[in-house]
Specification:
The complex is a heterodimer of chains A (301) and B (244). Chain A is an alpha/beta fold and 301 residues long. Chain A is built from eleven helices and 13 strands. In chain A, strand 6, helix 6 and strand 7 form a beta-alpha-beta unit. Chain B has one domain. The longest helix of chain B has 30 residues. The chains are: A alpha/beta (301), B mainly alpha (244). The interface between A and B is medium-sized, with 28 and 19 residues.
């Protein structure tokens, strides 16, 4: 069943159109990614979903609720972790959890929730003293304290170091496993590829494509590339004869082979048959970045 | 709402230097100036009233309330807006307006503590008069504080950043203290200045405090100006206040 339905959403600000025409659906229990460069309209889109902004056109439904008609009902099913939304510096972690729990009719056990996000030993710490990663985890916990069915997480890992980012990713997967549908807004290709069941690529206020990460990459051909330095000379025709290979190029000592399907095993087998070892072998696969570039003509970052 | 009030009160107490300054400065000025012997004698320029009985404590009450309204309240609210505390709260079932209400209540409570200390310590330490018209005094205090806190909301609405809020607050606060008679008692003001004072909200507040302190009824004009101030500033704040 569809937990979120967005149709032909349009929102303009006094000086520009933030969201031109955005439609997507989010199914129960999935991690749905909204991926696009800065300024693509991602945040405005989820702010409309979270009922913080009034769309100029289009419809939004969250578990059947119209965010504009019934804000109270929406707040009970949707928790949001928003960009540039923080807490006072002098509030302690436990006080924030206790306070936010009191805002909901049927809150979860916030003490257990703090343990789950890995802040069990930080309950007496001031918000102002938490690291970036800890703040984000507290922010996720606050979004979940009211037992929402849907959690909107906007730019969750921006500004975090790689370790904190991986920890946060694990947390998001745990949250999904506990049955919460997640809308994840990001401009990090790796984040979307790693976490999302489906991704909407957004560019200039429009959806360029919606699919699984693998599906999006396949849409652009799923090209792969092998780079290696051969231990013995060979003719390009040797590899061009393989059905998987579409192109062979050389730069200095390096050979770059482009192709599709089971490219790597086919090339390796052929080289081995001729006693050639591919030294410094690297396999490069198309990424969501390539998909984004192919679909919009623009780079993601 | 009770939990919100409780947590916000704790947050205020953790900013204890601000609290000490807000409550302590008027109190220190009252006790310091009040212990100058000449100020404890009946002053013919003020109709025979003693400076320490009405003018000084009324002005110190005004100082405490103006500090809260022009400095403490806007600084907290603008910082909350800047840091996204209000935005964070608007994603919950409790509207961020409750946070505003909690702040107003807490500031009024701090003002009440301040005026209580001014009255009691003035009486105990200086032998100054207690407010003789007590119900009127309480009414005037609540009405004037509400009007000035509403002005504080207007400052919070127009201040772009948390750092600029105290500056804008001072620009509003010092002229108000001047026309209210902080440095020149209203009795010795030129007539034109006293007319300005009568319509400045802070002026009526200070004078109505003095009147009730001395046992008189507050002047109707002063009550009307304070009610008008509450409505006008409140209305402007509701129109201008931005949540993010």
């Amino acid at each position: 069943m569809k937990v979120i339905e967005v149709r032909n959403l349009h929102k303009r600000y006094p000086d520009h159109v933030a969201v031109d025409d955005v439609s997507f659906e989010v199914s129960d229990g999935e991690i749905f990614g909204i991926l696009g460069p800065n300024g693509a309209g991602k945040t405005t889109t989820v702010e409309c979903v979270a009922g913080l902004r009034t769309p100029d056109r289009g419809t939004v439904r969250v578990t059947g609720i119209d965010p504009q008609q019934d804000r109270d009902a929406l707040r009970r099913v949707l928790g949001a972790q928003l960009q540039s939304a923080a807490l006072p510096d002098k509030i302690k972690v436990w006080e924030a959890m206790d306070l936010y729990a009191s805002f909901y009719p049927d809150p979860t056990d916030w003490s257990e929730l703090l343990e789950r996000v890995g802040l069990g030993d930080k309950r007496g710490t001031y918000f102002g003293k938490l690291s970036g990663g800890q703040r984000q985890r507290l922010s996720v916990a606050l979004a979940l304290v009211g037992r929402p069915r849907v959690a909107v997480l906007d730019e969750l890992t921006t500004g975090l170091d790689p370790q904190a980012r991986r920890d946060t990713w694990e947390l998001v997967e745990q949250v999904r496993d506990s049955g919460v549908t997640i809308v994840l807004v990001t401009h990090f290709m790796e984040e979307a590829e790693r976490l999302c069941d489906r991704v909407a690529l957004i560019d200039a206020g429009r959806v360029a494509a919606t699919d699984t990460p693998a599906g999006l990459i396949a849409q652009v051909g799923g090209a792969q590339r092998l780079r290696f330095r051969p231990t013995a000379p060979f003719s390009d025709d040797l590899l061009l004869a393989l059905p998987e290979v579409t192109e062979v190029a050389r730069s200095g000592q390096q050979v770059v082979v482009t192709g599709t399907g089971d490219l790597a095993p086919a090339v390796m087998l052929t080289l081995a048959n001729h006693q050639i070892v591919p030294a410094d072998l690297r396999v490069e696969q198309a990424t969501l970045d390539d998909a984004f570039l192919a679909l919009t003509g623009r780079k993601l970052s | 709402m009770r939990k919100l009030l409780f947590v916000e009160t704790k947050l205020h107490l953790r900013q204890w230097p601000t609290m000490v300054f807000t409550i302590g400065l008027p109190l220190a000025l009252l006790l310091g100036l009040g212990s100058i012997p000449d100020l404890g004698k009946p002053d013919p320029a003020m109709g025979g009233q003693r400076f320490i009985d009405t003018q000084l404590p009324a002005q110190m009450t005004l100082l405490a309330v103006l500090t809260l309204a022009c400095s403490v309240l806007p600084a907290v609210l603008v910082t909350y807006r800047e840091q996204g505390v209000l935005r964070r709260m608007s994603t919950t079932p409790v509207p961020p307006g409750r946070l505003l209400a909690a702040q107003l209540i807490i500031n009024l409570a701090i003002g009440t503590v301040s005026v209580f200390l001014l009255v009691v310590l003035g009486y105990v330490v200086l032998g100054a008069a207690m407010p003789k018209q007590l119900p009127g005094f309480v009414l005037v205090f609540l009405l004037g504080s509400a009007a000035l806190l509403a002005l504080g909301l207007v400052i919070a609405s127009i201040a772009p950043t948390g750092k600029s809020a105290p500056g804008i607050g001072s620009v509003v606060m010092f002229p108000l203290m001047f026309v209210a008679g902080m440095w020149i008692p209203r009795e010795v003001m030129p007539d034109a200045l006293r007319v300005v004072s009568d319509y400045s909200v802070a002026g009526p507040f200070a004078q109505a405090l003095r009147d009730t302190w001395a046992g008189h009824a507050p002047q109707p004009l002063h009550l009307i100006v304070m009610v008008a101030g509450l409505l006008v500033f409140g209305g402007i704040a509701i129109r201008l206040f931005r949540w993010e």
